[in-house]
Amino acid sequence: MTFEQTLVEPWQLRAAFARSLSDMYGREVPAYTTLLEVSHEVNRDVVAAQGADAERLGSIDRVTAERHGAIRVGTPAEMNQVARIFGAMGMHPVGFYDLRDASSSSVPVISTAFRPIERDELARNPFRVFTSMLVPSDRRFFSADLQSRLERFLSSRTLFGPELLALADRAEAEGGLPDDDALEFLRLATAAFELSREPVDQAWYGELEAVSAVAADIGGVASTHINHLTPRVLDVDELYRRMTDRGITMIDAIQGPPLWEGPDVLLRQTSFRALAEPRTFRTPSGEIVQDSLRVRFGEVEARGIALTRTGRARYDAAVVEVDRRAARLGEARTEEARQEIAREVWRETFPTTESGLVEADLGYFTYEVSDDGELSREPIVYEDFLPRSAAGIFQSNLTDEGSKDASQAAEERDADWMSGAIGRDLFDPFELYARQVQASLEAAAERLGVAPETLVTTSPTTMPTTSHGAQA
Ligand code: OOG
Ligand code: NI
Fold it and tell me: Which candidate among 286, 302, 323, 349 keeps its CA 20 to 30 Å from the CA of 84?
């Protein structure tokens, strides 16, 4: 007699991995534990105050478990391995972010985000990891000599061992792992992102740090580590106040759209600065000394409605306009004044209702037919990142601007290049959202027995169905 062993499925691996990383990070970075506590309090209070409205952009279970992490690697080969590990958990590369120009300080990386891409997979656990890789051939940052030493260093290290990669490949090929193998996979994967206690080569780290603290963090040590883990909150302004009350110094701003009376779109994030953690260093004379590094920090985010390309173009233009107006303030340019300007620009740019977003084709919404045959519209939550905010997060955690020679030509990098480096398709976030809309329209149309095109409408949240009636 044969029987099939049930496998731990990719989404279960993903949920367990997010938990395991969060537990590890909480043990090692106490301020993260405070952040989680405060996030849970805020979410509980928002749900108590707003009821079902609070869950329009994700159930409270999803939001409570929701995290994103960030990691940084050095080479296409390392990127390819990371993709295999995340592939085992049903996470795929989505979007291309070029942070080299998005920041005034020296951030020589390009990035993508690994995340689930199907609607039901996102609902099960939306864990995502913002993943950056160095561009050592970019002459604005690295000389030819430093590039070759950096590439030699990177190619001689091993971030992910053969057992971890073999388990990852099996999980992806077979659609999961048996219990014991799943546990081993989770243990090895979590360990791969822990902060290493190996002594740091002081001269090498220092040489890279003079060019870019991010380059030193990636290429100055022989391992990688998760550099932050971000819970989601339903009210990021309230979280900011409560963290500050608890004596934790947050960065000056909440990044992304301002707090205003209209619909929340995209992503609002804030963070606390990296903490100095004790590390050992090997000096040029071979001595081992104690010092510290600031490489791990905490961040929190509130997510809003995903914008269409048209909506996103408006957002990008609004960000530029806020900068332009804020620059005119000169000395009076406080964070508060900047937020006031941002609100003013938002009121000129975005409608104050969800229906307004639909009418101007600015946001993504799905459509569902209820049991009594009513068609309702639900916003799609933004699952991705913002390059400008990401650059701000990098920047707020640098002790030093580094150096960047703007007279040199940039090394060309784009989504296709990234896809080649990873060895997998890179998904376009806009296409993924549009696909969700289309799938919901087709399902709704089938239930109502009408053509999908007839359902795209611009009326209020709940619309009575027409005389074709519900077929349910
Ligand atoms: C990644 C920063 C980007 C975000 O939330 O925008 C990011 C990093 O610091 O490596 O995580
Ligand atoms: Ni982040």
Answer: 302
